[in-house]
Amino acid sequence: MNPIERGKITLDVWRARRAIRVEIEARQRRRLAEMLSFARRQSRFYKRHYADVPEVSTDLTQYPPVTKPMLMKHFDDVVTDTAITKAEIDAFVADETKIGERFLGTYPVWTTSGTTGEPGVFVQDETAWTIADVLGDRWIVPAMVSVSPLSRLFTQNLRTALVAVSGGHFAGAAGLEMMRRESALGARRLRLFSPKRPIGDLVSDLNQYQPAILGGYSTVLVELARAQQDGRLDISPALVTPTAEPISEAQKRILKRAFDCVVRELYGATEFIPIAVECERGNLHANTDWVVVEPVDEDYQRVEPGTPSDTVLITSLSNRVQPLVRYDLGDSITMYEERCPCGSAFPIMEVDGRQGDVLQFETDEGEEVPIFPLALSSVVEEVPGIHRTQIIRTAPTTLQVRFDVTPAATEEEVWKHIERELQSFLRTHGINHITIEAVSEPPQREERSGKFRHVWSELKK
């Protein structure tokens, strides 16, 4: 995308910031009509999938939803650039030296296991990448123009720290690495910090780095706030952005007290970033000028405002290389009709349902050490042959592991690898004498939501 086109998109994003509801809805309707028409013309999959829907219809309830397994099964027919094939994409994401590179020199590619437990690969076009980069700014930048945030930003030389799992083509790590590769400023001012490292090492590294902006997994940021409060961590960010996991109002207050800075929650997914961003009044606003958000029940029927959904369907209005139309994201959300006191006409939403438990273990010295859910699950997910997994703490020193393997793998060999990697990971945190048990039953979906929880504790709190 040339700078002029990128500038037009960015300008439109900012113009919509103070738009009234009818103007936001008009943007959505226009982009939705264009996306539906494009997908039905250019994607062989959608052409078949929507064969019974009238050509001119923009009523999304007439369009059957799609799921991640469905899109992965028909990947070559879903994508609209015939130069992209699943075989070549799989080879690309299997190569860790390619992290941060563009597929075919053009397309960012991100992978996820997601809350449904199914692996996914998502290709972004330039418009989708631009939207991912600028949508959050219209909510966050205005909060940074006062004296204190600006002073901290420049004192810390605009350094950004992202706490996210590395070692794969995940959206956070791969997106950050791409910005580092493509910008000299990004290479100097962007750094990834792994939540799989011992908390003491993470604290030490952040003390040395002194970020102006700190973002990443909510559970990790809350633990870092506690380290800041007890004096182990000593940083002065201007902005903290919890994401990837839901965060409570009480936890956000902990972040604000500990860091005395602007805190803005980001809600998004690998498939679309960001779906919603927090305003100055503490409400998440859905970016409905660029994404359609449909809270639905287990039968894919829309639920009333104020009612928690069983899942949510999203339609991306930006990505035309791998269109997402009524895509089942798997999260439970609640949408509200009430107008936010901040004055924005963008709808308010709440999110529930993607957060695992932080597991607290004792070291041999009696110190309590937190182990974060995404860090723990990623240790198992990176084992060759793993399809999906669940980790359950059933006793103070016992972890049970449910897992499925790919057709080419054997359970015995995969299990040996899982046990070895988990024990090694826990030892790096000073945690020894943990029993790790294989469970015969495969990972189970929650009955109500149909989603997979990845990590949780059955111990009474």
UniProtKB/TrEMBL annotation:
PANTHER family: CAPSULAR POLYSACCHARIDE BIOSYNTHESIS PROTEIN (PTHR36932:SF1). This is AMP-binding enzyme. It comes from Halalkalicoccus paucihalophilus. InterPro entries: ANL_N_sf (IPR042099), CapK_Type1_Caps_Biosynth (IPR053158).
